[in-house]
TrEMBL record:
Coiled-coil regions listed: none
SUPFAM superfamilies per the UniProt record, alphabetical: Toll/Interleukin receptor TIR domain
A GO BP annotation: signal transduction
Organism, scientific name: Solanum tuberosum (Potato)
Name of this chain's protein: TMV resistance protein N
Any Gene Ontology CC annotation: nucleus
Position of the signal peptide: none
Cross-referenced InterPro entries: TIR_dom (IPR000157), Toll_tir_struct_dom_sf (IPR035897)
Amino acid sequence: MAFQIESAQKWKFDVFFNFRLQDLDKSFVADLYQRLKDIGTNAFKPDVNSEWGEQISTEILEAIEESRIAITIFSKDYTSSPRCLEELTKIMGCVDNKGQEFFSVYYKCEPLDCLRSIVNFGADLKGSDLRKVQRWKDALRKADDMEGS
């Protein structure tokens, strides 16, 4: 009983989805959230009209921290989105520090094709951008390693 109470207090959301909206069918996203809602799963759903830019909002950072499970939907151009990569970096931190569970899905791409873009990713950036890109690469590698576990 105490475990259930602690668990309920620890997580505000059951699931947080990390994805590049431009790569997905709008009906895929809507159907996914609706199906989860139908079975009683509380998934964080960002307001795509006001929150969906390349910057990661405080609301999204908090939702990542408050989610029991994070699911990244990798797509062909996923790595072209700094916002997605920042979210993934935050998720990997929560996996390490908060016991968050992580799963990945590959949408209309093969895992090897989706993650192949990591190899030359950020090669033309300089200065502080290189540190950011290295954090993103580390997060992508960790996600890939977890997929293979």
